Amino acid sequence: MAVLVFTENWDGKFKKLSFELVSYAQKVAEKLNVPVVALSIGEVAEDELKKLGDYGADKILSVTNEYLKTLDNQMYTKVISEVAQKENAKVILFSHNNTGKALAPRLSVKLKAALGSGLIDLPSVADLFTVHKKVFTGKAFVTMELNSDIKVLTLSQNSFKLISSDNNATIEEYLTDIQESDIKTKVTSTDKETGKLLLTDAEIVVSGGRGMKSPDNWGPIEELAELLGAATACSRPVSDEGWRPHEEHTGQTGKIIAPNLYIAAGISGAIQHLAGISSAKYLVAINTDPDAPIFEAADYGIVGDVHKILPELISIVKESKL
Amino acid sequence: MRVFVCLGNVPDTTTKVKFTENNSVFDNTGVQWVINPWDELALTRAMELKEDSGSSVEKVTVITVGTKSAEPTIRKALAIGADDAIRINAEPTDAYDVAAKLAGVLKNEDIGFVMCGIESCDYNGSAVGGMLSEFLNLPSVSSVSGIEVKGEKVSVSRTIDGGKEIISIDTPFVAIVQKGISIEPRIPAMRGIMMARKKPLNVVEVPDTEVLTSHKSFELPQPKPPCKIVNPENVKELFDLLQNEAKVL
Fold this sequence. Notes:
The complex is a heterodimer. By secondary structure, chain A is of the alpha/beta class. Chain A has helices spanning 16-32, 46-50, 73-86, 98-110, 219-228, 236-240, 271-277, 294-297, 306-320, and strands spanning 2-6, 9-10, 13-14, 36-41, 59-63, 89-95, 114-119, 130-135, 140-146, 151-155, 170-173, 185-192, 204-208, 231-234, 261-265, 282-287, 300-303. A 7-stranded parallel sheet of chain A has the order 7-10-6-1-4-5-11, sandwiched between helices. A 5-stranded parallel sheet of chain A has the order 14-13-15-16-17. A two-stranded antiparallel ribbon of chain A has the order 2-3. In chain A, α5 runs parallel beside α9 (306-320). Chain A is globular, with a radius of gyration of 21 Å. Chain B is of the alpha/beta class. Chain B has helices at 37-51, 71-80, 95-106, 128-135, 190-196, 235-245, and strands spanning 2-6, 9-11, 19-20, 25-26, 33-35, 59-66, 84-89, 113-117, 140-150, 153-160, 163-169, 173-177, 201-204, 213-219, 228-230. In chain B, the strands form 3 sheets. A 9-stranded mixed sheet of chain B has the order 11-10-9-12-8-1-6-7-13, with helices on both faces. In chain B, strands 2-5 form a two-stranded antiparallel sheet. Classes of the chains: A alpha/beta, B alpha/beta.
C-alpha cells in the first residue's frame, strides 16, 4: 500500500506545489503507516527528482515518454492509474490547480475512488475517512466523508507548509507503452511567458480595481509588485473592461488565490471578489470610501486615494531596501 | 454537430449561506437559484458558435440533473437560446453520481462536444466535467478558455501556467471551460423568454447510480477581527504593521 503523489514540474524544475504535496503525503502516509510514492511525468534531472525525497517521498517514479510532453488528460490518467494499481495506492494526491482539476476527477472514475477536492488540511483517518474543504466559494466549510477503498484528493495551493525529511528516496524509471496514436489532443501552438511569477504561486499579490480609474494608472501597482516580488491581479470590472488581461482576474469566476499578503487598491470588495481572496492570510485595503465592504474583510486599511497612497508606499519600500 | 451544455442549478452568488439540521444541510429557504456562472458562459459560447455560419454547430442542448424545482433555471437557458433541454429527474448528490447520470443519458446521443463549467459555485468540486469524460471514455480538455469551430474542425485554447496552448481535437470530446470562453453571459430577451415556453424540455429517468461521498457537517468561517485603520497621512505605519505585526514583508 502507498500514498501516491502526482508532482508537477515547469521546464524541468518542480513547482513549489509538488513539495507541498509530498509534505502533505508524508503526514497522510504516517497516519496510514504506508510509504510515499511520488510520480513525475516529464524530463526532470536526477538531482531535481531527489529533492522530492527531501520532503518525504520514499520512492520516486519517473516517466519520460515523449508523447506525454503536453498534458493529455486521458493518457495521463491511464499512466497514473497503472502506477496507482502497481503500487497499490490507497490515497492519490494532486494539486487543486489546472492540471489537478483536469486529472483527479478522471482518475476517480477510473479507480472508482471518492474524490475530495480543494482540501485545506489533513484528512482524518479514524473510523471514517473525512476531509475538510471550503464550499460556497469560501463562504463556508464542509467536513465530507469519503466512502470508498481508494481516495483521490486535491490539495489547495499554499494551504500546507513544507516539511523537510531526510529520506534517501529511490528513483525508478517507469516505462509506459503510450504511442502517438493514443494522444487525441494535439497541441498545435504554445504561447507562454517563462520566468514570470504565477498569480496562483505568489506569496504577495498587488491588485487594482476600478478605483484605479484608468489602465494608464497601473504603473504604481506594477512597481510595487516588482519591489515586493509580488504578482499583479485585478478585479472583475477591470478585466471585463479590458484594462488588464483576464488571467489577472481574481474572484468567484476568476482565480481563487491564497497568498500571504493581498493588497487591494481601489477595490470595493464585492462578495464575488472576496470569494476569490478569502484564503489570503493578510488583506490590506486602500479605498476612498470608508463604507466599502473591502474594509470588513481587510486586516489593515487606509481610507484614502490610491493615487497618493501607492506612490508613498513605494518610496517607503524603496527606503527600507526590502 | 450537436453541442451539449451541462447546467448546474446553484444558489445566486450573493446568497448568504445558512445551514439547518444541526449544520448538516444547506438551508435553501429564500434562495434565488441561477445557472452556475461557468455553465452560463459555456452556453453563451455555444450560442455564438451556433449563430456563426462558418461553424457546423447546428443544435445546442442543455442537460441537467435535478428535480422539477430546477425547471425555472432550465427555462432560462432555453430563453438564452438553447434549442432543447434534458432534465434527468433526480436530486443531485455528489459529483460522481451526477456525472454517472449525465453519462447514462449522453452515451446514447450523437455528440459533437459536451461543455461543462470548470466548477460549481456551491460545492466547488471541479469534478463533474472530468468524471463525465471518463465515464464516456472520451478525450477531455480542461481549463478551456476558447473554442473555435471551422466547419467540422475544432480547436480549443487551454490556459496553462504563464500562457496558453492551442489544441486540435476530433469530435466527440468534453470541454471543461472557464472564464474567457466568453466574457459576459447572455441575458434572455423578451422574445427568447416567450419562445422558451414552447421549446422541448424532456424529462428522463436513469437507473440508480452510486454516491461515494457525503457531507457530515458545515461550518461558517470565524468572524474576522475588525480592520485596523491606518491614517492616510502615515503610510509608514502600514508598512511597519505588515513588517512587524503580520510579518509578511
